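Revision sheet: structure tokens.
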Amino acid sequence: MTYWEKTDTLGGVITPPFFINCMEYKIVDDYLPIDQYQNIADEIVKNNNFPLYVLNGVSGFGKADGYYFIHLMYDNGEPRSNKLPLISPFLNKMEWFAIRRIKVNFYPTTKEIQKHGWHVDYKFPHKGAIYYLNTNDGKTILEDGTEIDSVANRMLFFDPSIKHRSTTCTNDSHGRYNINFNFV
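Predicted:
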């Protein structure tokens, strides 16, 4: 596996404390300063030319739980998008040692809330975060039943190697946008 690694100014390893295989989570509202949030939201949510690519099966390729759109920013040790500089406010603020994947998710609006299948992001211990780009009635649901509302400029930190699921939304004219981070 390849990761984007982080060191301190002296070249030493930065190892933040984190949780593994438990249902702990942390929600941080107003995660970014409003100007940084607005810049990212304008570029992704309000930009009709932001590239998004359809995937069938939200909880895994080919699963029968709908479709969604993604924009892969970083994966498996490689930058995958020229939009990666948008993510710099997060990289400067988050406690991470190595990045595994960063992607934008877009779930189109549906007439009724659709719950996608349970999944894990990766089967090995790691940390995850979901940054919500717009406010709507969609949710992230953790295995213990905890439901996290989609609120603009909210960050959810959790263990994505434990089952969780996403939903669509019904009350936004476009859909539900978030940015998913997998890291150690």
